[in-house]
Design brief:
This protein is 62% helix and 5% strand. With 357 residues, it is mainly alpha-helical. Helix 3 packs antiparallel against helix 4 and helix 8 (158-170) runs parallel beside helix 10. Keywords: Cobalt, Metal-binding.
């Protein structure tokens, strides 16, 4: 992969200069009049867009770039920014990159590949806008409880949300159902509310931290369950701070009688490899939420393979739900998109029996 994408590495090495040129192109002579805070935010946003573009090119996934452009367009739309902002940015990207073509490090063919992926990304935004569905959300278990739980936490009422969950436990609701139908759907709704500018970052972080706390109240029960002699070791890649999903997966698997060993967010590769060597798990799981962290997941898997660790490796997170073939490109053993699918997959991979749960 490295040899095939030397041109991308060339662009990445010059990313800061390219980003600065894009900002100048977008703001013309006004760039010198920009407030420092506004300028730095513009630089951060441009870097974020470029990182996702470059990652889509490296892993050769038009699907992921389409999802990214749709997400970014929706975010800008609901933040009251101009609907042309994202389009203007990528037009500026093409103008700036045209000046980078040198037929040695970055050729016309490379430029045309970037032009193609961007063009297709924006074509699907227009298609999605014209085919928006008005279908309602199907009824799900704990639907009313989810609504009340959401209301509590959006009102900063952690105590009320905790009492709701404790009452559900007293009513003999299966703890696994709390993860399936309450905690996980709530986190998805929380992300949607932030993306559509209905809540701010502080509210989103409070609600996530509150849910982590409420989940911890269940640990006395979860950890008291009998366990089989199998270990599921999970980690986030280096730089990845979104850990809620993989944390919930580990809790769920504990309810399925597995032992789990969760290393946490932002784990250095060397620390992961050392933990694997010491713990000797039956399955390794690598979580990656941000698209531009996918190459880190691939590199970690390569290092684990080179260390002759013959353990199944699963990958998961938002990008792998969007592109069903992405797991194969990372060198992983597989992926699974739901709690039950993960449980069934690890039992099959380890020669176990899938129990009715």
């Amino acid at each position: 992969m490295i040899n095939r994408f030397l041109w991308l590495e060339h662009l990445r090495r010059h990313r800061s200069r390219i980003v600065a040129a894009i900002i100048r192109h977008l703001h013309d002579s006004d760039v010198h009049l920009m407030d420092e805070k506004v300028y730095l935010q513009a630089m951060n946003d441009a870097t974020f867009h470029l990182d996702n573009l470059f990652t889509s090119l490296e892993i050769e996934s038009q699907t992921l770039f389409n999802a990214y452009t749709q997400w970014a367009n929706d975010l800008l739309t609901h933040s009251n920014a101009s609907s042309a902002t994202l389009s203007d940015f990528f037009e500026a990207v093409m103008e700036v990159l045209l000046l980078e073509v040198d037929d040695i490090h970055f050729t016309t063919a490379h430029y045309q590949r970037i032009e193609e992926i961007i063009s297709q990304g924006f074509s699907q935004i227009k298609s999605a806008a014209g085919s928006a569905s008005s279908a309602g959300t199907p009824a799900t278990p704990l639907q009313d409880e989810l609504k009340r739980y959401t209301q509590h936490l959006l009102a900063s009422d952690r105590s009320g949300a905790a009492k709701l969950v404790q009452q559900l436990i007293q009513d003999d609701v299966d703890v696994k159902d709390l993860y399936r139908h309450l905690f996980h759907p709530f986190q998805i709704e929380l992300g949607r509310l932030w993306q559509t500018n209905k809540i701010n970052v502080a509210q989103e972080h409070f609600a996530t931290a509150a849910t982590q706390y409420i989940m911890s109240l269940l640990y006395e029960h979860i950890l008291s369950l009998p366990k089989i002699d199998k270990v599921f070791l999970a980690t986030c890649v280096s730089g990845e701070l979104h850990e809620m999903g993989i944390r919930m997966v580990c809790d769920y698997l504990e309810c399925c009688h597995w032992n789990t060993h969760y290393l946490g967010a932002n784990m250095p590769e060397s620390a992961v490899i050392q933990a694997v060597m010491e713990r000797q798990p039956d399955v390794i799981a690598i979580s990656c939420t941000m698209m531009y962290h996918i190459p880190k997941a691939s590199h970690l898997i390569q290092r684990l393979r080179k260390a002759d660790i013959p353990i199944p490796i699963l990958v998961g997170g938002y990008p792998f739900n969007i592109d069903p073939l992405l797991w194969h490109k990372t060198g992983a053993t597989g992926t699974a998109g739901s709690f039950d699918a993960i449980y069934e997959t690890i039992e099959v991979l380890t020669g176990g029996e899938v129990l009715e749960i």
